[in-house]
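User: Fold this; tokens only.

Assistant: Input:
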Amino acid sequence: MKRKIVIAIVLGAVVAGVWWDRRPQPEHRGTQVGQTVPAEVVLERVQRQQRALRSLSGETPETQILFGDLHVHTTFSVDAFAWSLPIFGGEGVHPPAEACDYARHCASLDFWASTEHAESLTARHWSDLKAVVRQCNAAAGDPADPDLVTFLGWEWTQMGYTPETHYGHKNVIFRGTDDDAVPARPIGAGGVAATAMRSRRPLWQDALGPYTDFANRQSQFNQHEKMRLLRAQPICEVDVPVRALPADCSEFATTPEELFAKLDDWGYERLVIPHGNTWGFYTPPGSSWDKQLTRRHHDPDTQRLIEVYSGHGSAESYRRWREIAFDADGAAVCPEPTDDYLPSCWQAGEIIRQRCGELPTEICEQRVVEARQHALAAGIAGHHTVPGNRPEDWLDAGQCRDCFLPAFNHRPTNSVQYALAISNFDEVDETGEDPLRFRFGFIGSSDNHSARPGTGFKHHDRKGITDVYGQEGQVRKVFVEAPRPKGTAARSQPFDLQASRFNFLQVAESERVQSYFFAGGLAAVHSAGRSRDAIWEALQRRQVYATSGERILLWFDLLGDEGREAPMGSVVEAEGVPRFRVRAVGAFEQAPGCPEQSLTGLGVDAVERLCRGECYNPTDRRQVLDRIEVVRILPQAHPDEEVGDLIEDPWQVFPCSGDPRGCTVEFADPDPRRVGREALYYVRAIQRPSATVNAAGLRCEHDAQGQCIAVKPCFGDNRTPPDDDCQAPAEHRAWSSPIFIQDRGGALGADSDDHG
């Protein structure tokens, strides 16, 4: 007994001594080590594009297609820092300077943007980020013809636990980087995100955390210090002009209206880009774009682009099924499953039904109904209402079964297609003639959290190129997740999300979501040159398209009289039969490893550590395009029009010949249904299937009727073997920005006056 007491005293002394002697360090912004990419390498990229279009159509392009990533996090963001810790299966911190090196030498991008979560940033962080962005630009060579353009911004990480309070995340990106071109401080989102960043964990968790991974305890001490400094930074006063506030306070905007008003007060050129709107990891069931289509919450001059695809899945597609329904009195009810969708609330009831055993049928059915209501009321935390449930118990509930690389728990009324199809008849647009509508151009991004912009060039190394994170056993239960009710009782329990002391990361479905992290997408701009101004102006014109990571070349134009053309992103007033042309070329196949310029410019050791030994390394062979799909949307012209009837996806499909030089398609729309109203068109250039990380989602086993009867999730921890990249075939694609045509009379031409 005495021996046990002595051992306990010694262990306690060691623990106390280590804690007392801790020396937390402030986060370092990192050191950029890469050299400028040689001019001849950059020139060869341009010449390859020119050769591709000449081979396809005999023409020389007037613009360059430049590829970039406008959504990148490093471990300056609190969630990224947490996921980098070894306790989460992470590989250590990745400071902002590494993102510059990765973009330049690993991914060979033409541009990227720093967009840390604003709620994570102290005044020192913001100062360091500006310094890193300026340093990355200074190393880019001639500003008129740089090897890489770096933009500065932040992510406004707004979340609400109900559809009425949820607006979603938006990236704010600025044209300039000097102090007189950007705000003095980032503007975060009030509410859930800000509370999560500033809330204190129980002291015992902070005290025990470093000892669960003793060899890496310093990184956890550093995290504690980061959070202490963040909480210590005062919150800015409200109703004070932004320029009158001190630089070292935390500023918040709780709604888009407040965000746009603050940005207007600063007056600097910026773009506001919504993203991840269908991602049900944090988006409440029932959320929709309708409440944001107002003059208060939408600024058409700055909110001109939307992220249609990222490493968190595709936000494109609208579906008629719903994750939540409402009865005649407005009360929430669980919708019944359909052939193509299983609501999560419904499956909660089925899990309880399977446990009923010898319970009387009437009582069992009451508990099934009760379980569905409990799951509905819990919102994104519905899985916390069923005692002892496993991820496999939910089958593929909540998932879009026929979407391309869908967002987890896809929310169809928050999709890009839904946004483009709705109209606000109580407010008019800038013309004064039409109801207010969203007119978004499309981009892809990575939403990467390890300082790795543009990871979609190769599909390998699931943990390296996606945001997959993992932890198992007691560590997860103690430090990561809110506790779930134990056992296998045939009765659910309510979970009050808004009253919970746990933050949104702890109550969300952290296990099943690991099957829905993908390699990053890209934004592709048709730019007059490589300069910052040229890229910015292309983004502003919506002369931009998205890809799922592959560097597909895509041109989409409205053909007018006398050779006039209006490119993707244009708003055109016209009558008559519109005619269109699509030209597309598949992405280059990739060679393993890294090209010589990456090894020379970054160094062998840095390539191995940061690029994980793989870079964008194109061969001379092109991927083959399978088809061109055209989507037509006729935005609501009357309030009673059903949205699902206005979205035609696909409207037309054109097979490609298999020629590796690419695919050219021309088509027209003589349909009288579009006469006298607005119509918009966008195209998808789709490659033949290739192996893709997480492409099979939860990996369903299907019965003879095609229903999912068992799943094999791709976990982030060792329940999925480290060498299993969870690959399956996927048809990678590029999405053009839409062309918006208003049929109001006049000759068909390329009058692309922009009305917002």
